[in-house]
Amino acid sequence: MLKYSFSVGLGASRIETLSLKTCLQQNFSPLFLRRWPFSSFPVCVSKIQYYHTSPCSFKKKKQEVLPVRPSKTITYLPDSPKPALYVSLVGLIPFFAPPLVMVMTKTYIPVLAFTQMAYGASFLAFLGGIRWGFVLPEGSPAKPDFLNLASSTAPVVFAWTAFLISESINEAIVTVIIGLGIALHIELFLLPHYPNWFKALRIVVTLVALLSFVLTLLLKDIYPEKGPKRPGQVE
């Protein structure tokens, strides 16, 4: 119920309008004095504003396909043709036989070291011939250009140098070791046209040859020297 009655006509003046406002404040003062619970509204907003309101995308992301890592070259060794594998294994005998005999006799034998060096130098010349034989046939993946043909002469140069300085057997063996390392580097990285099984075979043969030469150099300082330095030379 209203405390104060009031009436407003169509032609009410400004004073009557103000009286209406005063009357409303007196009749509905509890409503004007009531505090509305707006203080909690910012808290709600602060909590809501952290939610993501954009539409969700349920499409599956494409997983990146990692490139297949190439297998190591040495793993292709079982793929080698049996004749090539057997001949290469037999060809390793002149490399490790001299140091093996020295270990068994506990004596450094210079003539055996010379024969080992001579075989290594001959093997270097053989590697140069393999490159020429691989390049020259028609349809070969390697072209008979200057790089392929000239690089094949590098092992021959080292073999020739080793024979020239063979009076000092240690220097000759070191020259053959350097030639084997350079020849392997050329074939694996500069001229990568050989089959994978051949590369694996070359790695194994080269490592065995290098190990045998290093062993021979070490045995010279371990065991006493005995015998001639070259075949046919009188002690």
How many E strands? 0
Q: What helical percentage do the residues reach?
A: 55-70%
- The assigned structural class equals mainly alpha
Task: State the order of secondary-structure elements, H for helix, E for strand.
Answer: HHHHHHHHHH
| Average of pLDDT | 77
Termini separation comes to 144 Å
**How many helices does DSSP assign?**
10
- Which outline best applies? globular
- Unreliable stretches (pLDDT < 50, length at least 5) are 1-15, 30-34, 36-51
Radius of gyration: 47 Å
Beta-strand share of residues:
under 5%
> How can the largest sheet be summarized?
none
Structure description:
The chain is mainly alpha-helical and 235 residues long. It has helices spanning 14-27, 29-33, 41-48, 82-91, 93-105, 110-135, 146-151, 154-164, 169-190, 196-222.
TL;DR of this structure?
By secondary structure, this protein is an all-alpha fold.
Please give the structural blueprint.
Elements: H1 14-27, H2 29-33, H3 41-48, H4 82-91, H5 93-105, H6 110-135, H7 146-151, H8 154-164, H9 169-190, H10 196-222
Helix pairs in contact: 5-6, 5-10, 6-8, 6-9, 8-9, 9-10
